[in-house]
Design a protein that fits this description.
The protein has 254 residues and is mostly helical. It has helices at 2-6, 9-28, 39-53, 66-105, 123-138, 141-155, 165-206, 212-230, 232-249, and strands spanning 111-113, 120-122. The protein is elongated, with a radius of gyration of 24 Å. The two termini are 37 Å apart.
């Protein structure tokens, strides 16, 4: 009799919806969505945390029928997608800035596959992305996500998430902010590169024997790397602030 009460249809549907909430978040959020993490590992993690959080699962508020369950599963995936978009827009500030820096340094053709997103990106973007990933681990971002799930269970019923107009407005604002902050991070290197181009142009006018390809580009790359190292701490602090703002913005989902 006790096992029949545990494995009734309400508890089973609730367990499935809770599993899809974890699965959607692990597929969309930084760190957990890393391409090097096999899909079966992500599914195992989602199943494990579903068991851990199952005792704190709220009572199911949807009807137990196929259309309601399908709509509830889609709702859980929309929740994971919304959280992933908000966090990735804050995280992609670094990769966008790295692309601008690579272009100014002449490294735009030197690209590699980014293990985080699985797409090809300039080498400076990949370097900053990997360093940012380490910073996020040091900030315990993975713990923040689990705490968010715990809070969402208390405020957002399983299968009850709906996209709001405020969410779309925030995504538009965060997208424009990504470009603005990305240019802000890359501005010191962009400005010094433009200044170096002006100086090299003046040198070529006064000394025609000056070889820009042999002398100018190595100097430009050396200056850019020096500025990148000098501003690295500030860049990571900007990333930290962006991620904190993104997590504060997750309150609109409740």
């Amino acid at each position: 009799m006790q096992w029949a009460q545990i494995f009734n249809e309400t508890n089973i549907v609730g367990f499935i919806l809770l599993f899809f909430r974890f699965a959607a978040l692990f597929l969309a959020t930084p760190i957990f969505s890393h391409k090097n993490i096999p899909m079966n590992v992500k599914a195992s993690m989602a199943f494990f945390f579903t068991i851990v959080f199952y005792p704190s699962m709220p009572a199911l508020s949807i009807a137990i029928n196929v259309p309601s369950i399908v709509i509830a599963i889609l709702s859980e995936f929309m929740l994971g997608l919304a959280v992933g978009i908000i966090l990735l827009l804050a995280y992609n500030v670094i990769t966008f800035a790295g692309g601008q820096i690579s272009f100014m340094m002449g490294f735009s053709m030197a690209s590699a596959i980014d293990p985080q997103s699985g797409v090809s990106m300039p080498i400076i973007s990949q370097f900053l992305s990997l360093m940012s990933l380490m910073i996020l681990f040091s900030l315990n971002l993975h713990h923040w996500i689990l705490l968010f799930i715990d809070k969402s269970l208390k405020t957002v019923p399983l299968g009850g998430f709906l996209m709001s107009e405020n969410l779309f407005h925030y995504i538009i604002h965060a997208t424009s902010n990504m470009f603005l902050v990305g240019f802000t991070i890359a501005f010191p290197i962009i400005s010094l590169s433009l200044l170096a181009d002006v100086i090299f142009g003046m040198l070529m006018k006064t000394m025609p024997q000056f070889n820009l390809l042999v002398i100018g580009f190595p100097i430009k790359i050396m200056v850019s790397f020096t500025v990148l190292i000098a501003t690295f701490t500030a860049t990571m602090l900007i990333l930290k602030g962006q991620m904190q703002e993104a997590f504060n913005a997750l309150e609109m989902l409740f």
